[in-house]
Design a protein that fits this description.
Rossmann fold; 5 strands; alpha/beta; five-stranded parallel β-sheet
């Protein structure tokens, strides 16, 4: 399933990299953890030319956009349109980072927020309705892909 004109707000820890407290994630040669093969498959299946991935991860300022593109590429994901939320002050929640971005920018395309942060359940309804909440120990899976497809199909029918 390839989607055009879509924005994906993407977290990494607990989404692309399962957070298993009993083991450290395997680091690849670039010093960043390996992504789950399930998460790679799901994310790649929804990315196409018209899709923009907006990094929301706490790691977002650790690498520049070109380095992030290479990190994704090494893990089997091609992301042509990659952006990042601005680095925020220490202590600003993910929810507030997303709200601040939405308050300054207009979202003119379909969007999903893929994250494991349960505080995002407190987002306003127009954002929360687009939240795909993952289990941090499992990450992004095929069942999430079904939810993403369902949300986007519902939007198509309500237009």
């Amino acid at each position: 399933m390839y989607l055009c004109g879509m924005l994906i707000f993407l977290d990494i820890d607990g989404v692309m990299v399962p957070a298993k407290s009993w083991e450290s994630p395997k680091l690849l040669s670039d010093g960043f953890p390996e992504f789950s093969t399930k998460a790679v498959r799901v994310l790649q299946s929804i990315i196409s030319e018209g899709v923009t991935v907006m990094l929301t991860t706490s790691h977002k300022s650790r690498f520049n956009i070109e380095e992030w593109k290479e990190i994704f590429h090494r893990r089997g994901i091609t992301v042509n349109n990659l952006k990042s939320l601005d680095e925020s002050n220490f202590g600003v929640s993910r929810k507030d980072e997303i709200l601040n971005w939405v308050n300054v920018n207009t979202i003119s395309e379909d969007f999903v927020i893929i994250d494991d942060d349960k505080s995002l359940n407190a987002l306003p309804p127009f954002l929360k309705d687009n939240l795909i909440l993952t289990n941090p120990m499992v990450g992004l899976t095929d069942s999430h892909l079904d939810i993403i497809k369902s949300k986007l199909e519902n939007k198509l029918h309500t237009v």
